[in-house]
Fold each of these.
Amino acid sequence: MYVHSIRLVNYKSFGDYAENEIILEPRVTAIIGKNESGKSNILDGAAQIDFAKMQPSAFADEIVNRNCSSGTENKYLITLKPTNEEILSGLSGDTKIEIYKNGYMLQGSLLSYYLEKVYPDVKKLLGILDSTGSNPFQLRDQDLINYRVYYDELQTDVGMNVPLKKRALEFLSKALKKISPEKREQLQQALETVQIKWNDLLSMLPVFFYRNGDKHLNTKYKYEDIERELKNPNSAPKSLLSDLVDAIGVPYDDFLSASQTGTKPNQESMRKRISRLIKEKINHNFKIFYQTEVINLDLLFNSGIVSFMVQSNDGADLMLSERSNGLRWYLETFIDARAYDWGGRNVVYLLDEPGTSLHVNAQRELLKLFRDLAEHGNQVVYTTHSPYLLDTEEEGIHRIRAVVKDADGYSRIYKTAYDSRIAPEYQKDTLAPIISALGMNLQDTFGPAKDKINIVTEGMSDYIYLCTMAKYLGVDTTKYAIIPSVGASNCINICTILHGWGCRYIAVFDYDKAGVETGGEHMRKKLCLEYRKHYCYVKDVSAEEIKSQSYKRDTYMIEDIVTKAEIERFCSENACVNADKTLTAKLMCNAIESRNFNLSQESENNFRELFERIFSYCA
């Protein structure tokens, strides 16, 4: 199953209202917002959720919303949905889970699965216990009280407390040796049958992996530091050493023995074993996780000091500290994740500002990593301020959530970053990374012009020509706002934002393959938007012409409105024949505005007709 939504009720900066819920995409979800808006609180809250056990830290006094009245508790409401494979296997419908300080309730499709697949065997197990008496294990005091609580939980078929049922089965497994020999084998077989089916159910529940980037693998560790950390991992909360040892499956005592000064045969044997396990458990799988280059982690034991080195595909051995921040981030994230045994369950990766220490290209590579994790059945949820970590092309802006903190200090989550409920004073800052990701900047006067027609152009040259010719022809500036995009798909993204804000808009596409198939026809077929109302083309064409695909043989672009003859004349007169079309548009429009170049009457008429059409469509 995958996580569809999480409601954080009275958790940190979130209160008890509709906007405390984050809807997660089945694959990748990005969270944007200003600093201190509450983005990290979403990840912190999600990280408190463990479907198989109760976490005391999830209900600590310090995480209850400070604005709530005294005595108000926080709680977590989660909705799970089945994957396609689970639906085909018969699991259908949502599963609702409510986790609060003194309780846990699971209802829906997973409860139905339990009652059908697991509960009949649980009843057989309870029947064996009943045949032995009310106290089959001859327990006393608190153990007997616990047994009765666990028995009642296993018996119930209304709702489900997963952590309590899990503890009940573990309790019975440990208590087996206390039952009479003649009943022990029968009970053990019944318990094993239940455990197998119960573990199948648990494997459907997602797990959360939270990485905020604070934990690192040091280049060198002295023996005393190793001893302190392995004996008490909490003593070094920012070190990944204990996670690495967990990931390769070496007992702490063995790693300590290998780290001590000396060359005894058993030490050398253990050191070779540790190196082999790093190769098998870390390097082999890391090649799948990180495909930019072949990387091998290794370690060196020398006089009570353990040093970590990295060998790249060019054969160079470098100390870990000598490698780039980008590679170290990937490697450390991988080790951190591998330290947990999830048994093939869907992992929800929670990543707080993952690209902070990475250069632009490495940030873009992260998007590939996110997609790869999603392809393997996982979900990725991350916060960011970086436009390079917002994949507006492949994943779309619909997967981006916005977080805004209101004047009263409450954080509110919006399913879209262009939700009309976001107060105007917060809209521009909230959207800043999206605007940059769309190839724009905040100086492009991008914003909700609710009293004007927002004309969204497919490219920058279209924007330059339209802005200049609107002024040249004296078009009333109170009627329009022209917004540039980079490509037809980004043009649609901007229109989606404007639509969410309740603004009037129209996209203007070139009449060519990209403009029609990626632009206008996508808006008509996928978004159910209307031709000559929500979008149009620089050429006035009929629906029949579009259907016949005349754009493939009779393309018409903004340069055809200016007329190619006029552009050639300008370039010839100003020695800019080899300039690209955006630069040509800028140079030509500068000359038009300064009256150093006079357009032909045909070009003026073409633009006048285009503006008249646009305004008639939006009337």
Note: The chain is about 45% helix and 15% strand.
Amino acid sequence: MSALVSAIPILLLIVLMMGFKVSGYKSAVVTLIVTILLALFAAPALGIIPEKYTEASVFGITLWSVVEGLLKACFPIILIIICAIFSYNILCETKEIETIKTQFIQMTSDKGLLVLLLTWGLGGVLEGMAGFGTAVAIPAAILIGLGFKPMFSAVICLIANTVAVGFGAVGLPATTLANQVAASGVATPEELCEVATFIILQLSLMFFITPFLILMLTDRTKILKNITIALFVGTFSIVVQFCCAHFIGPETPAILGSVAAIIAMLIYNKLFIHDEDPKDEVIVEKKKFSLTKTLKAWSVYGLIIFFILISSKIVQPINELLNNTLVTKFELPVIGNTFKFGWLSNAGLMIFLGAVIGGLIQGMSFGSLMKMLAKTTLNLQKTVVTICCLVAMAMLMNNTGMTNDIAKGLVLLTGSAFPFFAPLIGSIGTFVTGSATNANILFGKLQATAASDLGLINQGTFFGVSGSETNWLAAANCAGSEGGKLLSPQSIAIATAACDMEGQDGDIMRKTMPFAIFWILMNGLMVFLGLHVI
């Protein structure tokens, strides 16, 4: 009974968004209000509030849990989102995004390789840098401009925008997950690397399967060629992403892994693509760009990567200086949790610096950049409300014992098979909220609690990499959340808008459904095997 009552906020969110088609921010506000009422009245009645709070008032626990959620939502989640979209808006304002698009189109005339380049390569870079729909909208629009059918363009971009999602917006989903499951509430660099590495391991087969599916959907007659390209490109991607995750953290795998995939495709194109059948070629107008023009177009993203890298563990002295300078840290009353935020060490600042300096290089004035930042912030106000409410709801459910009770209920229901179903929980979170970050906010702690209930609290070895069993199970939430992107109404809405397919959301969902089911099953298998077999 307590597990069912505790699950009311999550079920309500699903019913409002899916059943009654209520917008995300309105659903989040209503759900937070209901969660507050449950915390004030149902949690004490059911006796699920943790023992450490026995001397505290329920009102105090509720109030400070909401405050904790609002603080964690703003610093750094919302900060990163605003700065990421700001960086993309600069490229649109200066028209340099057109240069980037054209350069990608001119890289190869082979139809299959070009589709893979735009969706897996450019899409991955956009997801890693900005996220929030850019990786679907831009490649889809380019494909239609090249003569591909709208339905094909929408579906292929949704399929491609999966593996990179967990590390989108400079690693925000994976970072959020690591912070959710960290004992202190703020993950250490080592914990960030461990969670990021586990996500890569759980997705390892999809690094090869996804490019193969993209190529096969483009041209089913070239099976051997498609297998070869998928293996070649997938190997480059996974090696670079694993190294980034293991040695740097969650910020760069999607960005540098996608760049590595692009390089792999260019190498393959140079070595093996020649004298193709004209029907397999895409004819585009050739246009040359000077080195200066190219550097100018890529200055925003190039500088963001530069600042992220020099502030990471790669440059230890700078990393330590930033982590120990201008750090806000205080204990929240009643609940006793510690809030900590580094003003100089967070990814949001690095994106902001790269965006502003790159924008100046591209010809915008500082005043114009600040106006654009303000406009970007205003345009994201509904997203801000949604995330604030969801994080506050998650903190409230955690601190009042609701999350713990749901986890116990799921463990009782599934037993030792729970790890197989762990990715499904993450995919439901993304399906409902449209965001892997939000899915990790909702269910990250639940996965860690379930791991504890299952006795998965020890160190282990997973596909040759040692780490915490708890983090392995928590990582399944992020890996599974990427499969949910294929069915998320928000993601599909972006695809329909980009492809001018209003009213065809259901048709797109029916076409992506088999891929989503396959993705979730593969994730479940990898998570289960990692724990019990390999």
Note: The CA atoms of residues 172 and 323 lie 18 Å apart.
Amino acid sequence: MRKKLLYLLLFSISISYAQPDDLKVGLVLSGGGAKGIAHVGALKVIEESGVRIDYIGGSSMGAVVGALYAAGYSANQIENLFLQSDLNLLIKDQYPRRAMSFTEKEDRERYAITLPFDHFQIKFPSALSRGQDVYNLLVQLLHDVHTVKDFDNLPIPFFCTATDIETGELVVLDEGFLPLAVNASSALPTLFSPVAIGDKLFIDGGVADNYPLAHMQAQKVDFIIGVDVQSGLIQKNELQSAADIMLQISGFESAAQMKEKKAATDLYIHPDVSDYNLLSFEAKDVLVQIGQKEASRHLKDLASIAELQTSKNSNPPKTKSIAQTLKIDRVAMPKLIHFGRNYLNGKLRIKTPTTISYEKFQRGLTNLAATNNFKSFRYQLDTTPSGTVLDLNLEEVPNDVFLKIGVHYDDLFLSSALINLTWKHGLFKNDELSFDMIFGDNVRYQFDYYIDKGLYWSIGLHSRLNQFSNDIQHPLSSLPTLSSGVIMRHWVQENEFLLGTLFREAFRLNIGVAHQRIVQWTNLIESNTNDFLFLDDSDYYSLKGNLSLDTRDHLHYPTQGGHFYGSVQSYLYKKSARFEDLSEPFLVAQADMSITKPLASKLFFTFGALGGFTVKEPQNNSFRFLLGGYGNRFVLNHKSFLGYAPHSLSGNSFVQANFNLDYNFHKKHHVFAKANFARVGEDIYANKEWLPPADYSGFALGYGLDSLFGPLELTWSYSPEVKRRMVYVNVGWWF
């Protein structure tokens, strides 16, 4: 019966269009999250049938697919765009590590949970993602039509719908900046943050109307094809996410309306995607096939429609190049309360006028978005008589206070629980005050105050206390009075005032002054004082400088990139009640570097080298290099060295090579093999004793899980010199 009605309609149309007039066809694409990928398969069949689409309207994912087609992409090219993109990664806004500043990297690799904490109330984010990566991609893909403000002037006229979050009303978006309109139409509640356009805030158009037929009927089209990927109301056992529940609620009225809308659609194509949900992006290839298969059932009807179009499509969609560069003549920045132009320029790193690659452009945008200082971050490209203007639309995060939590266990600091309070914009613009209180077997703290001045010299004030104890399992050549089994206690407080700036855009240069309060003692009793044997109890004052670079994509399990850290610290003054004052200044210099290369799709190799030396070493041993143990956050000049207990090897100079083979065998699960070799001793560089072969070596096998709380690792190690097997346990980020 359906086909008979269709052919009758086509016959009547053919009579009325026997004159020079032409049959204009409108295409309506429904929303449906990941299920909307089936639209691409349907579009392939419609395009192959020869039907000329004269108007496109869509909601949510239908808006995304429709906008790309309206902008001139072919159905095959849209399919390739979806299949070649990691959609799950794209929607999560997991900013790459390289986009973060050094302080932001430290925050990410220190705290497991971060929550807004204003007025002593914990607040939760409104959505899982801000949709920044999706928006950046839309801007690039739609670059060649960015000057089109009236969507009727696109290669194919287009509209999309969104929902006003304040009133719940359906709003038709048919003018403005196309990527922004599409972004608002597809802002799925709880998954993506609402999108601001002007003074209004929008969410997914599917909330108000997931099949925008009415507005298409109001256009000058004669025949409407609809592709609907809705699956009706969801069964209770299939309501697996907040987004599912939201759409179920909004679907109560929509389900009743769809009967009328289906009847009012001249050709209704309904792919069966009921086995998939809003987030089934991993099934993108199957969803395309489902849409293609269902549309193919209507191929004869589509061919009949194409025959009735007297004016054939002289410029059918075809594969077109994706913009790789853009020209920016000026950046228009909003007036913000806490962040000035220098800060924004320092993150964007765009000097206008310029022609910049999209890769570098998006990297600068990601640098800014990754600060998490902005609740919403959108931008437009506006064409003016003076050139192309990048118009930034930023809304600052309303929260100034954050509560952060972390947990950790290792063989040196033992169990630790961290509670952090971070206060932004407390005294000046761009400043941040952070205080860690660490409880557990060794109570510690860390205080940081930082003023980020972008391209200019930034200011940092740091204070930290570390304390721990360790058994001396092997006699130290530098401490012949201490035998095996002695317990050594360390109490180190460090205070620094630093100035920092970016060097060649990638290196971080810090210079400043430092104070260190170092107390080290043992469980041995001195006969002449009847007190514990102290090795140091002094205040040291120094000048310091360091240069760092970090392009690794992950701190513990990198797949590419490398790092460099070099420092020089000149100690000028010492004050102590127990020991003699410093007879002359001394210096400590050290460097640490690594590089990671992929050997196969899941196999990665990292080579690292580090070394250091002291000049005019003081009589006490506080600044000697101590190697041993397995760790990431060490105090003073203590270094990790597999196969040995902490502080087993000692010298005023050392050189070390590390080799790591990491196999990421399943998602976040890793197995690794490590080896390290070292020379440690007295003045090894001056005596040319730093060359191979090594005096000490260690080998290890281990398993690691990259969890929410950081790496969970169990590592077995062995050293052929001491012929002793050791097991290291690490839980969570190091702090």
Note: The radius of gyration is 32 Å.
